[in-house]
Amino acid sequence: MDKKELIAKAQLKNIPITESKLNRYISLGLLCSDTKGRGRAKGTLSHFTEESLDILKEIQSLKGINQKHIIFTLFWRGYNISWHKLKDAVYNFALEIEDKFTEVNNKTKDPEFADYILNELIEESVPKKKPGRPSNQDLKELKQQQEVEKESFRNILNLVQLLAAGSSMTCQGLKLFSRPNPNVTSQTIADADMFLDWLNLRTIKESIQRSEEDDYDNILEIIHCIQQYWNEIEAVSERPTVNSALKEIVHQINRFYPGGFTFRNVTLIRYLILAMLAFGKHQMILKFLKSVQTKTLFNQFVNLPFKKNNQ
Question: To 10 degrees, what angle do helices 83-107 and 213-237 make?
Answer without folding.
Answer: 70
